[in-house]
Recover the amino acids of this structure.
Protein backbone atom coordinates (compact mmCIF):
# COMPACT_ATOMS: atom_id res chain seq x y z
CA UNK A 1 0.00 0.00 0.00
CA UNK A 2 1.40 3.35 -1.03
CA UNK A 3 0.58 6.37 1.19
CA UNK A 4 0.69 10.12 0.72
CA UNK A 5 0.16 12.86 3.28
CA UNK A 6 -0.50 16.18 1.59
CA UNK A 7 -1.42 19.37 3.35
CA UNK A 8 -1.65 23.11 3.22
CA UNK A 9 -0.65 24.93 6.40
CA UNK A 10 -0.15 28.64 6.95
CA UNK A 11 0.39 28.80 10.72
CA UNK A 12 1.73 25.27 11.26
CA UNK A 13 -1.46 23.83 12.79
CA UNK A 14 -2.31 21.49 9.92
CA UNK A 15 1.35 20.59 9.49
CA UNK A 16 1.38 19.41 13.12
CA UNK A 17 -1.49 17.02 12.35
CA UNK A 18 0.20 15.91 9.12
CA UNK A 19 3.34 14.99 11.08
CA UNK A 20 1.27 12.76 13.37
CA UNK A 21 -0.15 10.96 10.32
CA UNK A 22 3.28 10.62 8.70
CA UNK A 23 4.64 9.05 11.88
CA UNK A 24 1.70 6.62 11.93
CA UNK A 25 1.87 5.46 8.29
CA UNK A 26 5.64 5.42 7.97
CA UNK A 27 7.20 5.85 4.54
CA UNK A 28 5.05 8.04 2.32
CA UNK A 29 5.01 11.09 0.12
CA UNK A 30 4.85 14.04 2.53
CA UNK A 31 4.32 17.67 1.60
CA UNK A 32 2.29 20.08 -0.45
CA UNK A 33 -0.42 18.83 -2.81
CA UNK A 34 1.22 17.77 -6.07
CA UNK A 35 0.85 15.30 -8.92
CA UNK A 36 3.46 12.96 -7.39
CA UNK A 37 1.16 12.36 -4.39
CA UNK A 38 -1.70 11.31 -6.67
CA UNK A 39 0.14 8.04 -7.37
CA UNK A 40 -0.52 6.81 -3.80
CA UNK A 41 -3.32 4.34 -3.00
CA UNK A 42 -4.29 6.07 0.25
CA UNK A 43 -4.10 9.84 0.45
CA UNK A 44 -4.42 11.90 3.64
CA UNK A 45 -5.45 15.42 2.62
CA UNK A 46 -4.97 18.24 5.14
CA UNK A 47 -6.23 21.79 5.02
CA UNK A 48 -6.74 24.91 7.08
CA UNK A 49 -10.30 26.18 6.96
CA UNK A 50 -11.03 29.22 4.88
CA UNK A 51 -14.55 30.25 3.93
CA UNK A 52 -16.01 27.13 5.62
CA UNK A 53 -13.99 24.86 3.32
CA UNK A 54 -10.40 24.34 2.18
CA UNK A 55 -8.16 26.61 0.15
CA UNK A 56 -7.87 26.55 -3.63
CA UNK A 57 -4.62 24.53 -3.59
CA UNK A 58 -6.24 21.64 -1.70
CA UNK A 59 -9.49 21.93 -3.68
CA UNK A 60 -7.61 21.69 -6.99
CA UNK A 61 -5.70 18.65 -5.71
CA UNK A 62 -8.83 16.87 -4.46
CA UNK A 63 -10.59 17.35 -7.79
CA UNK A 64 -7.78 15.42 -9.55
CA UNK A 65 -8.23 12.30 -7.40
CA UNK A 66 -9.72 9.16 -8.89
CA UNK A 67 -10.08 5.68 -7.42
CA UNK A 68 -8.26 6.55 -4.19
CA UNK A 69 -8.89 6.00 -0.51
CA UNK A 70 -9.02 9.47 1.04
CA UNK A 71 -8.76 10.64 4.64
CA UNK A 72 -9.57 14.33 5.10
CA UNK A 73 -8.18 16.30 8.03
CA UNK A 74 -8.03 19.95 8.91
CA UNK A 75 -7.76 22.74 11.42
CA UNK A 76 -10.40 25.36 12.10
CA UNK A 77 -9.69 28.62 13.88
CA UNK A 78 -12.92 30.25 14.93
CA UNK A 79 -14.89 27.59 16.72
CA UNK A 80 -14.20 24.51 18.78
CA UNK A 81 -17.41 22.53 18.36
CA UNK A 82 -17.96 19.22 16.61
CA UNK A 83 -20.93 20.71 14.75
CA UNK A 84 -18.71 23.38 13.21
CA UNK A 85 -16.00 20.85 12.35
CA UNK A 86 -18.60 18.55 10.74
CA UNK A 87 -19.97 21.41 8.63
CA UNK A 88 -16.54 22.24 7.25
CA UNK A 89 -15.59 18.59 6.75
CA UNK A 90 -18.87 18.06 4.83
CA UNK A 91 -18.01 20.95 2.54
CA UNK A 92 -14.58 19.48 1.81
CA UNK A 93 -15.93 15.93 1.40
CA UNK A 94 -18.36 17.27 -1.21
CA UNK A 95 -15.34 18.22 -3.36
CA UNK A 96 -14.07 14.62 -3.53
CA UNK A 97 -15.05 12.96 -6.84
CA UNK A 98 -17.39 9.99 -6.38
CA UNK A 99 -14.85 7.49 -7.77
CA UNK A 100 -12.91 7.83 -4.51
CA UNK A 101 -13.69 6.33 -1.10
CA UNK A 102 -13.55 8.59 1.93
CA UNK A 103 -12.14 6.38 4.69
CA UNK A 104 -12.14 8.95 7.48
CA UNK A 105 -12.16 12.55 8.55
CA UNK A 106 -10.84 14.63 11.42
CA UNK A 107 -10.87 18.31 12.34
CA UNK A 108 -9.84 20.27 15.39
CA UNK A 109 -9.34 23.85 16.35
CA UNK A 110 -6.08 25.52 15.37
CA UNK A 111 -4.58 28.77 16.51
CA UNK A 112 -5.51 31.82 14.48
CA UNK A 113 -2.61 34.00 13.33
CA UNK A 114 -2.29 37.40 15.02
CA UNK A 115 -2.40 39.12 11.62
CA UNK A 116 -5.78 37.52 10.91
CA UNK A 117 -7.12 38.52 14.32
CA UNK A 118 -5.92 42.10 13.85
CA UNK A 119 -7.41 42.32 10.36
CA UNK A 120 -10.75 41.08 11.65
CA UNK A 121 -10.64 43.48 14.60
CA UNK A 122 -9.99 46.35 12.19
CA UNK A 123 -12.31 45.42 9.30
CA UNK A 124 -15.12 43.57 11.09
CA UNK A 125 -15.17 44.77 14.70
CA UNK A 126 -18.68 43.40 15.34
CA UNK A 127 -17.67 39.91 14.23
CA UNK A 128 -14.45 40.15 16.21
CA UNK A 129 -16.39 40.93 19.38
CA UNK A 130 -18.57 37.87 18.81
CA UNK A 131 -15.65 35.47 18.38
CA UNK A 132 -12.82 37.01 20.41
CA UNK A 133 -13.12 34.44 23.23
CA UNK A 134 -12.97 31.59 20.72
CA UNK A 135 -10.00 33.24 19.04
CA UNK A 136 -8.25 33.46 22.42
CA UNK A 137 -8.98 29.76 23.04
CA UNK A 138 -7.52 28.86 19.64
CA UNK A 139 -4.01 29.68 20.89
CA UNK A 140 -3.99 26.35 22.75
CA UNK A 141 -4.70 24.18 19.69
CA UNK A 142 -3.91 21.69 18.33
CA UNK A 143 -3.17 20.33 21.78
CA UNK A 144 -2.40 16.88 23.21
CA UNK A 145 -6.06 15.92 23.35
CA UNK A 146 -6.54 16.95 19.69
CA UNK A 147 -3.59 14.72 18.75
CA UNK A 148 -4.99 11.77 20.73
CA UNK A 149 -8.35 12.15 19.00
CA UNK A 150 -6.62 12.21 15.60
CA UNK A 151 -4.65 9.08 16.48
CA UNK A 152 -7.89 7.33 17.47
CA UNK A 153 -9.39 8.17 14.05
CA UNK A 154 -6.24 6.91 12.33
CA UNK A 155 -6.39 3.65 14.28
CA UNK A 156 -9.78 3.00 12.63
CA UNK A 157 -8.32 3.17 9.11
CA UNK A 158 -4.66 2.11 9.32
CA UNK A 159 -3.88 -1.55 9.92
Amino acid sequence: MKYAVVYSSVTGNTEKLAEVIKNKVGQCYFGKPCDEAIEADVIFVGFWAIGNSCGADVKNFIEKLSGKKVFIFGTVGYDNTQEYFDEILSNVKALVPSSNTIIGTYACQGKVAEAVKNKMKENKPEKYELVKEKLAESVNHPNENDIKLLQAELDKVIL
